[in-house]
Please model this.
Amino acid sequence: MSPATRPRSGPDRLRHKTVSAAVADALRQRILNGDLAPGVQLRQDALAEAFGISRIPIREALLQLEAAGLVRIVPHRGAVVAGLTVEEVEDIFQLRVQLEPQLLLLSAPRFSEADVRALHDLTAEYGAALQAGEVDRWGELNRRFHLDLLRHADRPRSLSIVSGLLQDCDRPTRLQLSVSGDVARADAEHTRIVALCEAGQIAQAADLLRAHIANAATSLVAIYRRAHAA
Model:
């Protein structure tokens, strides 16, 4: 068997896997930060040159990003940064409006004192990131907050769906907060939701959560429609 046709050894496969994971992480951050906008073509040869590596780990990294929904493999174009249409944004937020308040009604009665403290700490961290303009952290902290609110609902399938929806909302959430300037409102509503849960006013907390998601959806859809009309 010639060297060209011989299967790669274990260490070679491990090295490619490690390098591809690092490339995928670097590209993921650039996509989530908005440095790589939806529709941008990710050419394997250009990426290989930029990272100083072969095309094999680049191809593997792009497949990882496709599995995460951040990249689409398009015939005759290769990999492009994935984006959301207005209709997809509306669909995502409509699903969240339906699911999250119901899950909160199940989760909040099971909060321990430690859970409430952790939520307060997370809202403080999120508020500080909002005020500091740390845009790269907004989406992830928002996702953590919403999932932590719902984690005790004992509905693993519903939580898995919500987790995926929140992941899809990462970039849109940062866009909505950046363009609308609603950072103070987002911070205040998160804080109020936790306070209502702590006070045992769980139905009111669920109502506020529903309004919180719906308000973000209205703002974001308006931003998307303005962008498409421009």
